[in-house]
From TrEMBL:
Keywords: Membrane, Transmembrane, Transmembrane helix. Residues 116-249 form the DDE-1 domain. One of its GO terms (molecular function) is DNA binding. The chain crosses the membrane at residues 113-133. This is DDE-1 domain-containing protein. GO terms for cellular component: nucleus. InterPro entries: CenT-Element_Derived, DDE_SF_endonuclease_dom.
Length: 315
């Protein structure tokens, strides 16, 4: 379609292309000729709101970030995000007789999930986790055996609300902020439920500035989304599948078992944890500050186009 648009705009008709539209074979040869610049990759499906993000919005975000992050040390740059660990272990490839129409695996699961707030610094430090159960109260068995320093709470919805966010802020962020009078920034979603007067006062008291990520763009601007949550999810599903195969009659993850599973999850990803976290800050252009990681500038685009081998050279 790019080639068709190029030819149509020039007002020319290529003799080998019907309606100026190249065929599959020509396109594959074009990619081969430019293999130093082009590659085939699976693309992720994103919602239309994400696709509509403009360069100007991302540029405005980085302009704000540049002013805010200046002279702040990486250990005082923090990204936070809430993530659910669901009860669904996902699908798995297995071997079946050819012709099997409906391959199935007998594993009980429900759509429940447990919310966790993750917070990480640009030097690759993972802060204590904050777990929120969906329940009217917390039982002693639900908080035993988890990762050291983990904090537990509950809400009726199982999601973070204003009071739980404030509690997380006071128990995780403030102890981190107290360690130094140096200026600090925390980067996260712009959710109104996460902010209240007490949080803002605490930010003023401990020299903390909020940086809000552009809406619907966290998949390219949030370090946790970019490099940490995917391996976390893959490892969690592996652990969950093992547990469910050992205990096939259980319909869901028991909250009494969850802390131990969470501890195993962090242990299993520990070897690559620091590397992945640092990579996330680098890939999102936060630290070192580099907007081109997210939004290549016009000069790069022109250079890229100039390097392409002419599209009508011999196949």
């Amino acid at each position: 379609m790019v080639i068709k648009s190029y030819l149509d705009n020039k007002g020319s008709q290529h003799p080998k292309f019907k309606y100026n539209l190249p065929g599959k074979q020509w396109t594959e040869n074009f990619v081969k000729r430019n293999k130093h610049l082009l590659t085939k990759r699976h693309c992720q499906n994103i919602k239309r709101k994400r696709a509509e993000k403009t360069d100007e919005e991302i540029e405005a975000y980085f302009e704000n970030l540049k002013k805010t992050i200046e002279n702040i040390q990486p250990e005082f740059i923090l990204n936070y995000d809430e993530r659910n660990l669901s009860d669904d272990p996902g699908s798995k490839k297995c071997i079946f007789a050819r012709g099997t129409k409906y391959p199935e695996m007998d594993i009980n699961f429900i759509k429940s999930a447990i919310s966790i707030m993750f917070a990480v610094t640009a030097v690759g430090t993972l802060m204590p986790l904050y777990v929120v159960y969906k329940s009217d109260r917390i039982y002693d068995q639900w908080v035993i055996g988890g990762p050291p320093g983990t904090i537990y709470n509950r809400t009726k919805s199982g999601w973070f609300d204003g009071p739980t966010f404030q509690d997380w802020f006071s128990k995780v962020i403030i102890p981190w902020a107290r360690s130094s009078p140096e200026p600090k920034i925390i980067i996260g979603d712009n959710l109104l439920s996460h902010l209240n007067v007490e949080v803002i006062r605490a930010c003023q008291r401990y020299n903390i500035k909020f940086v809000f990520l552009p809406p619907n763009a966290t998949y390219i601007t949030q370090p946790l989304d970019v490099s940490f949550f995917h391996p976390l999810k893959v490892t969690w599903r592996k652990i969950l599948r093992e547990i469910k195969l050992k205990h096939p009659k259980e319909n869901c993850v028991e909250k009494a078992k969850f802390p131990g599973m969470l501890a195993r999850l962090l242990k299993d990803i520990k070897s690559n944890e620091k590397t992945n976290l640092r990579s996330g800050f680098r890939a999102t252009g936060i630290y070192p500050l580099n907007p081109d990681e997210v939004l290549p500038d016009a000069g790069f685009k022109k250079e890229f186009q100039a390097k392409l081998i002419p599209p009508f050279s011999a196949s």
